[in-house]
Amino acid sequence: MIDVFGKAILDFQKGNYSEDIITYSSLDEEDVIPVPYLFRGFKEMPKLEQEALKLCKGTVLDVGCGAGSHSLYLQEKGYEVTALDYSKGATETCKLRGVQSVVYTDIYNFKGLKFDTLLLLMNGIGIVGQLANTTKFFEHIKTLMNPGAQVLLDSSDIIYMFEEDEDGGVWVPNTGSYYGEIEFQMQYKDQKSDSFYWLYLDFNTLEMAAEANGFGCKLVRNGEHYDYLAKLWLE
């Protein structure tokens, strides 16, 4: 698999920034991920991310760490944090930026360690891909949690991206799948990634999936645009 995301951030880290990441989605929208934004400091982070970082406790696993901005902030605050990503370029970038504990692996292949906080930011639950995979995901993260551990994650309800009808209802195409399952492809310079699914979960669906798998779930805060921060724990 071509590590488009990792190549872009590693280029930026090494001073070779010239282009941003372009994303193509099944919503027929072309969008841009500005690479410098992935290197933001605490003050530039959205309030939801700031709140999540303040709520961290004990040992932290930063799942889908990207360029490592959250891990670096926590490390500077004295937390014992492990940055995990399935992008080789991302994990190399984290090391170059000074993150002390970095793991290059898929979350499902990560075993044997337990943490007090699992952190999944920038729509971190997206790694689940499709709603049908939530049970597999929840069952696995149970094995990574110390007694009393918490999961902090943010996501968005993308219902706003669909057309409203005259009665104020929303017209969602009947594809047979959950409307938050979006297929993406990334491009950086002349390279394109394979297509992959990324999951956007509205809070009610997250809460139902969490409770069905033995987790408590609480809405911590709503963001500025259909996004939210949630806290989960094992009942």
Tell me briefly what this model is.
With 235 residues, the protein is α/β, with parallel strands linked by helices. Helices cover 24% and strands 31% of the residues. The strands form 3 sheets. A 7-stranded mixed β-sheet has the order 5-4-3-6-7-14-13, with helices on both faces. Strands 1, 2, 10, 11 and 12 form a 5-stranded antiparallel β-sheet that branches.
Structure characterization notes:
- By secondary structure, the protein is α/β, with parallel strands linked by helices.
- The protein has one domain (45-180, 203-234): Vaccinia Virus protein VP39 (Rossmann fold, 3-Layer(aba) Sandwich), CATH 3.40.50.150.
- Helix content is 24%, strand content 31%.
- It is built from 6 helices and 14 strands.
- The chain has a 7-stranded mixed beta sheet, sandwiched between helices.
- The longest helix is centred in the N-terminal third of the chain and has 10 residues, at 4-13.
- The protein is globular.
- The N and C termini lie far apart (38 Å).
N- and C-termini, Cα separation: 38 Å
The radius of gyration computed from the alpha-carbon positions, rounded to a whole number of angstroms, is 17 Å
CATH-scheme architecture: 3-Layer(aba) Sandwich
Domains counted in the coordinates: how many?
A: 1
What is the mean predicted local confidence, pLDDT?
Answer: 93
CATH topology: Rossmann fold
CATH class: Alpha Beta
Query: Got a strand count?
Result: 14
SSE topology string: HEEHEHEHEEHEEEEEEHEE
Helix content: 10-25%
Please state roughly what percent of the residues sit in beta strands, choosing from under 5%, 5-15%, 15-25%, 25-35%, 35-45% or over 45%.
25-35%
The main sheet comes to: 7 strands, mixed
Structural classification:
alpha/beta
Please report the number of helical segments.
6
Strand order of the largest sheet: 5-4-3-6-7-14-13
Write the CATH homologous superfamily: Vaccinia Virus protein VP39
